Amino acid sequence: xxxxxxxxxxxxxxxxxxxxxxxxxxxxxxxxxxxxxxxxxxxxxxxxxxxxxxxxxxxxxxxxxxxxxxxxxxxxxxxxxx
Length: 82
Prior knowledge:
Oligomer: single chain
Helix content: over 70%
């Protein structure tokens, strides 16, 4: 779905997707790992332990709503193999 081909203005979503694809072509996996690490360090400086507990709680609740018992059995098996 290319906006430029039919003379209409590109949506923000389309521009973001195209920009992300162009960036991905120019950078390696290590690049993304490094910026992720930097972002994590910056976030940890700006937030408390309570922040992480809250987002972990929300994430756990969302996961439990979206997955069944078989999902938890499978991740338990995978974790037990390590």
